[in-house]
Records
---
Amino acid sequence: MKTREKGAENKETLPTMEKDMAQTFTELPPKSKCSRCRGRARIGLPAHNARFCPDCYLQFFANAVRRGLKRMRIPREEPLLVAVSGGKDSLAVWDILSELGYATHGLHINLGIEGFSEASREAVASHARAGGLSWSEYSLEQEFGYSLPRINKRFRSKICSVCGRLKRQYLNRFAIRENCHSVVTGHNLDDEAGRLLGNLLGNRPEFVRKQSPYLPAPHPLIPAKLKPLYRLEISEIRIYCELRGINPAEANCPLSQGATSHTFKDALNMVEQRMPGTKRQFLFSHIRSRKEEIEKGADFGECRYCGHPAYEDVCGVCSLRAQMEKG
Ligand code: AMP
Ligand code: ZN
């Protein structure tokens, strides 16, 4: 299998990576054996009660993604559009999907945040160069009329939710423009479990019901949404990136400080530390109990300004633009 070959390549470079690896990997006694091959284990995963050597770790990672993809209906006739921010999650999902043999096309939205956006773009560009991957870039300012720092001046404390809304809307539109009907994002287990906790605590049953690692396309102009990393934790993705030599942009968005989503993730990690495996049980039991609800195309109207499918009279993009114009 391809992943294994690349893992073998990486194995040769492992000694030079040991210093970095020690920061992420659970310290294991030198005699620890890999749960799969009985070779020397280097990576301990308490939530799985397992220990892996680097090669078997890559197999474990690929299997978790395969398992996640199994229930998703993935078109083979067109590439999967991978939304790449330049962070570790989206570069990892782009990498593993290509390794598993899927045709992909990356899509990066430049948010226009000084310093942060240049570094994010460069991480995407260099990953694409190294792997010979195709990608496109769109500028929020060009499409929407305002960069994120300008939008921040208007929305301040709500900036993360406004940015999330704009990214979702534009990913839909750009995907269709690129002739892709399935959008992949790098959301991981921590993102999804944190969001579920937030929605449950906020008593938002309509969002809880909709939360799923796979949402089929509800309309010909709105693509399906896939989150193939939902079975993997942030720390597991970090290890994957280190083993594969992926170099993500490290900085957090300077506008997202104090976002509530961090608090829910922290709370779950506190429980996880005392009871390993709780986070995944929490998310997976929700996913198992969730009935697949396909939103029907008939519920959509058209935005009276831009003609894009919308539930309301005006779509999310046009209503935000109107609020910006009002000042
Ligand atoms: P976030 O909401 O920033 O945690 O990002 C979640 C996912 O959305 C990432 O893993 C990416 O797949 C996608 N994403 C976030 N920001 C961008 C961006 N600027 N361009 C393209 N995709 C993005
Ligand atoms: Zn509109």
---
Amino acid sequence: MDLKSLIRDIPDFPKPGIVFRDITTLLRDPQGLRYTIDFLAEKCIDAELKADYIVGIESRGFIFGTPLAYKLGLGFIPVRKPRKLPAPVYSVEYELEYGTDCLEIHQDALHPNSRVLIVDDLIATGGTASATAKLIEKIGCELVGFGFIIELRDLEGRKNLPDVPIISLVEY
Ligand code: AMP
């Protein structure tokens, strides 16, 4: 299936010069949605990642990470923006183009010997995924890979990630 044909390009969003890859058009397509999750699951199985948990990044990482976890028979753990999670958290700050941002995970979400696959909709510079990897390291878990629907190759986000398998379904 041609997933690119279901992803909508929105030029100059959220600011001039950025082409926003809009996955809402993919999500509303029944065959497209099913194919996306099945294809991602298949690639994870082929890569023999043997994850115990999917860690999904707010908020589009939740949309793809949860059905992937269901399909693979794994648990799902959310990484959220600050002050959203109710129990004690670990936090990580990371650099944005202008300023910094922060992500959080529940301190008791993972046992230190768990194997974790991080999922988000898209990798651009890799800053968000790399910050999430730091949270996993902080807990002492084993990071076994990353899964993305979309990869923006020109931004070379892979170079900013730890040396584990990186799965993506569509490249721009
Ligand atoms: P980065 O940290 O630079 O890898 O950016 C990844 C995060 O920003 C993901 O959570 C994406 O949802 C979002 N993002 C970055 N660039 C785009 C884009 N061109 N279109 C849609 N989402 C984007």
